[in-house]
Amino acid sequence: MRIIFKTILLSSALFLTSCATIISGSRQNVEIASEPTSAKVYINEIEVGNTPVQQNLKRNQEYNLVLKLDGYETYETKLERKFNAWYIGNIAFGGLIGIIIDPITGAMHKLKPEEINGSPKSGTTYNTENGKLFIRISMDIDSNSEKVGQLKKSE
Amino acid sequence: MTKMLLLITVIGITSCSPKITSNFTNPQPKLSIDEKVALLDIEHELPENLTKVGELRFQDSGFSTDCSFNSLMNQARIEARKNGANIVKVVDKKKPDLWSSCHRLKIELYKYDGDVSSLPQYELKLD
């Protein structure tokens, strides 16, 4: 019985080493949508496409996010790295190896949009599903622009 | 258990960020996000008629993991904008080696009155 117990304990320690790295991985999928759609998205000033757009970002970095759309005010925010609770799993399973590996891979973090006084920045809503981060940004009409007309698809 | 919690707390607080040392000798008015900042690597030449704003040094704190070249250059650009510089020039670069998994950079920041987007420069990538 003792041997079985020891074997289970050892296998758990080996298989569950680096809890956060195994559960979350070193990258996080982030989907950015906007209202209205088709805004140009820049991450760290690199154009990544028009909304809705998806990127697989490293968890151990912080990113500047900028959305631009004609007739709307440029929206700036940040993706900040926060503590990933799976890292605490190392106390039970991962042990010292997990404590070292998770920070190296970046898995001890998760990305979240910038918060001001504990709430998301005005215009940002987000949720996380199965580790994937969905961000929705509502853009304000640029007060300096004036609508002069609208193009309509010809039938 | 207490030691483990302490270790997790210490690593949680200190991990990731590289050690940044800065020295701004001539700070300029802050730049907006719409104003371009050129990132010049070692092989890129500086234009003439520049005002030196300051220096940055990125080192390995011992727990740094967010220290790729792209990430450090992005952080340098943020610091440059805060201090009114529109050129980030790498003057010394050590690549990851046996002693450190980090890029270690010595950077000079300059203010240039010309169009920085016309300068040959490093193109930042997402890691």
UniProtKB/TrEMBL annotation, chain A:
Q: Which PROSITE patterns match?
A: PROKAR_LIPOPROTEIN
InterPro entries for the chain: PEGA
From which domain of life does this come? Bacteria
Arranged from A to Z, the UniProt key words for this protein are:
Signal
Among Pfam families, the record links this protein to: PEGA
Q: Does the keyword Signal apply?
A: yes
In the UniProt record, does the keyword Signal occur?
yes
Give residue ranges for domain PEGA.
29-79
User: Where in the sequence is the signal peptide annotated?
Assistant: 1-20
Coiled-coil ranges per UniProt: none
> How is this protein named in the record?
PEGA domain-containing protein
Instruction: Give the originating organism.
Output: Algibacter pectinivorans
TrEMBL record, chain B:
Entry protein name: Lipoprotein
